[in-house]
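Quick one, T. Sequence first:
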Amino acid sequence: MTRLERDEEAAVWENWAAVNSSDHILEGTLGDVNFNQGAGMRVVELRSDTKTQPSAAMREAMSRAEVGDDVSGEDPTVNRLEETAADLLGKEAGLFVASGTMGNLVSVLTHCGRGGEIIVGEHAHIYWAEVGGAAALGGVSYHPVPNQADGSMALEDVAAAIRPSDIHYAVTRLICLESSHNRMGGRVLSLDYMEQVAALAAEHGLPVHLDGARIFNAAAYLDVPPARVAAAADSVQFCLSKGLGAPVGSVVVGPREFIGRARKVRKMLGGGMRQAGVIAAAGLYALEQNVARIPQDHANARVLAEGLARISGLVVDPASVQTNIVNVSLAGGGMSGWEFEAKMAARGVLFGALDERSVRMVTHLQVSESDILWATEQIASVTAA
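Structure tokens:
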């Protein structure tokens, strides 16, 4: 986007804010522009499933949480969360961390020594959206491999990326997968594919890490227990603060010995928390109450995709929508992704531009089918103008 275009976008927001009262129910930012939704304005939040708010019941669970010093392993609620997460994913042990980014970083640093290299998809969240943490903090380099449309990496590309033993090369230490795949529209890796990657990794003595930020979405799409999705990976990170609706936190699961080493890495990164049961309680509530309802988010995403596909100027393939993410392309000659984002936000429909010609919309537990139908109507009216 050019400077002129960004100034024009800012003007849209300034004009809109000027006609809204000072009595606001939601404040935030979109790009570089501050915005406020007026108290009488309907808002449908499709920017991300990270935007969910904890329910009253979840807040109550947090207020009643037993706590202790988690750095010393004495917080009973954290311990229960870690055990529950490990059991659900079929692993020996778990580690509560502050975020998915921290969970992935702790996992990578635990698997790899300085000077090691990880094989990762070029569109993987670990590679493009985690601030280069493995390289900056751990001296670990990335070897990006092209992603296919379904979020996978071709097996032959993965095999070719494994470094031969040569004094000039970094040492391949880890293969990273992602499912469901954020940037590839929430697509889910097949169990057969993941098993093939695991077999290839085993041939070379390499572990596999799964960025399973939305692993429960993947499991719901595949109609299998989450442990089945996690089975091919040595370590898995999953988020509590996305579709599960908790305000904060992720869990890393894996072999007990691995988690023991990961706990020390977490401390090194400043992630040792004391009376963390207050936030762990939200994660426990999420795992106990919000997993079973995830297919509803997928159904709403399909309704959204089908509605958008009928709008001239938008390109959506409803058949490609497997979970709760809908990627939308804009036909040539119209407004940019950023202009589309700003115009719809002014109408109360919030989503994010991916680039000049595409946007992303994400359903979650605080978006109903009624919200989807209303949002689709608003989008149709703006694109027709």
